[in-house]
Design brief:
This protein is mainly α. The chain has twelve helices and three strands. This is N-6 DNA Methylase. Pfam families: N6_Mtase. InterPro entries: DNA_methylase_A-5, SAM-dependent_MTases_sf.
């Protein structure tokens, strides 16, 4: 999941946002066509999985061709492989994305079939053309997907979590001011991270690396925050991303609490890895 830090969108941002909306509508249609409970976290996780898989592939066409020709069980195996890679490289991201990956071990053939149909629909709508290359810097796909999944019509994008790119860009240009290395960017209504994306674009346009900033984001919606965690990888914000699920108005010290939670989690992961390494050594034949 390593890419050049100075990357920026090579295409037209408006076209990228229109493409994101199209994908969102097709994903919602495919998911709801399968019947059963709404469970927006599942199709949102499917789209996130495809986005991360597209980053790790040598050619995005390889991922699309492989998925299209495989069974639902095969797709679930691919998804588990993708998230194992996330766990190995960025356990902090998996921690926040947990609400959208609970389907990884499957819950029966019907759900597996809906998952695969949703993945096929996302690919047919050209998701990897948007998220598999530099165009991903020009749009937030997961925001419109979450909005479409929550829309009663299942074909319209609710504006609850999605901030249009031009609006976000204007806001962040003012918020950042004379941006400097080490600066902190805070969004206490982060949603799926639209302002993060726009701010990163401003930072790059000014010749700096977004990984040199610290990013704080909070929201009451755990699915939106999970999407923001995945987006932080897609948009190459670096490891200094601190996310929090909660109400910032009721919790004025949320940023401090979030930072402490992340540090504690990292300590626990480090300790667990040490235990696993010791067990592996003990089990090694001599």
């Amino acid at each position: 999941m390593n890419h050049r830090a100075g990357a920026t969108g090579a295409g037209n941002p408006i076209n990228a946002e229109c493409h994101a909306l199209k994908i969102a509508v097709e994903v919602a249609r495919a998911w709801h066509k399968g019947g059963g409970p709404d469970r927006p976290e599942v199709p949102l996780g499917v789209v996130a999985t495809l986005a991360l898989a597209g980053l790790t592939a040598h050619r995005k066409a390889d991922v699309a061709d492989w998925v299209r020709g495989r069974s639902p069980a095969d797709f679930l195996r691919l998804a588990r492989w993708v998230w194992r890679a996330v766990l190995a490289q960025r356990p902090d991201v998996l921690r926040m994305a947990a609400p959208i990956v609970g389907w990884l071990h499957g819950e029966g053939e019907q759900l597996a079939g809906r998952i695969k149909s949703t993945a096929d629909a996302a690919l047919a709508a050209g998701q990897l053309d948007l998220t598999g290359g530099d165009r991903r810097f020009d749009a937030d796909l997961l925001g419109p997907v979450l909005g479409a999944l929550r829309s009663p019509a299942a074909t319209k994008v609710d504006a609850q979590m999605y901030t249009p790119g031009d609006v976000a860009l204007a806001l962040t240009s003012v918020m950042l001011g004379d941006v400097k290395q080490g600066q902190v960017f805070v969004d206490d209504t982060v949603g799926t991270g639209g302002l993060f994306r726009a701010a990163a674009q401003v930072v790059r346009d000014r010749g700096l690396d977004p990984t040199a900033l610290t990013w704080y984001g909070a929201d009451v919606d755990e699915l939106a925050v999970a999407a923001a965690a995945v987006n932080s990888v897609l948009w190459q914000l670096g490891t200094n991303v601190v996310l929090y699920v909660g109400d910032p108005l009721a919790e004025p010290d949320w940023s401090e609490a979030a930072a402490q939670q992340k540090v504690q989690f990292q300590r626990e992961v480090h300790a667990l890895r040490g235990v696993l390494a010791a067990l592996d050594l003990e089990n090694t034949p001599r």
